[in-house]
Amino acid sequence: MQSAPQEALGHKVVGVGSCGLDYLAQVARFPQPDDKLRTENLQTQGGGNCANALTAAARLGLKPVLISKIGGDAIGDGIISELENDGVSTEFVLRAKGHPSPFTYIIVDREGGTRTCIHTPAAPLEVDDVSPSLIEGALHGAALVYFDGRLAEAALQVAKAATAAGIPVLVEAERLRPGLNELLAHADYVVTSAKFPQAWTGEASLGDALLSTFQRLPHIRWMATTLGSRGSVFLGQAEALQNGDSIPTIRLDDVLDQLSEQMRESKADLHDEPPACTTASGVDIREGQSAAAEGAIRLQWRRDESTLPEVRQKADAAAAAASISNADSRRASEYNRTGSMEECSGDLPIARVIAASAAVLPKDAIVDTTGAGDAFIGTLLYAICHGMPPEKSLRLAAVVAAKKCTTVGARGGLPQRSSLSDMLFL
User: Does the model's pTM come out above 0.70?
Assistant: First the structure.
């Protein structure tokens, strides 16, 4: 993938965002209202999007530094200890005396293959908490800064400092959050969930939502979107060719359909390929496939203006629903998308499009998807710092995410670099 500037290239990455404790209860099926179920497995381990992603990056060989805030309690002591043991520096994790640390109840549904999270936040990271000296110390020598979209007001101060220092910024857009729009305005790289683009833009199709999102990001180099079992999509800037008129023009939805068909047609018997890694229980995980649009293409989008009210209505409804789920309905307007819908109609200047499949492993080997997206992002942090090409980066990230899914919790299945095939990195 496009790498950080050569003068900044290194192993240090800074993450700003959530960390906490996860209580994971695995049950046979998700409970009905007023149900009583017994757990099949109960675990307690560290959590939080940012902390999970940095743990994945640390196990691959980076030197992550976390900026966050937790309580001054025994739970917080355990959070710090677990991160430090994994090689994540907590020098800039603040402790709020008299406040509890954040925690999340997670119900892992074995029958349905889902996980449901109920989060209890702690004291927020305030703007005054991230002093100039803290920011300077954390960013010194960093190759990349990652934001998980939480703690937005304080995170924005770090993002501004990183931009001023020429340090690339990666922002996670998992779901609508207050202040996320401002963070995205500083992003060189963005990783979105499958649901975010359509919620943010109100677009009905995935391709139109991806394109609409991409066009609203003023400094974007590339955007990756995770699609769960369907793999991932990469959309990046490409240099314009001298003869721009010869570049084909096509809708992004059509490109994605073509790439998916290419992967289906060229699919070899991946079960005969050497495994990319093997789990503790002996399950082999194999690298998936990727397909790229041939050369640079011009992505086309012609809006039917009669649909504009419906698109806006969907985006507004998604923002309202997100504010309610966060018990924050009074700030619903802050969850809304940025930019006007009219500005996003037309052609995107030259772009690169790549699709990648998920890694290959038996379906019954998938135990828990909690933290799969964090594992994916942690791997992309590694890929950026090492200048890996996007096709290789997406396949490596899929393998790391798949390995994570073979155990309960966000971190237990994250692989060490030494446990992965060297072919993944060549």
Answer: yes
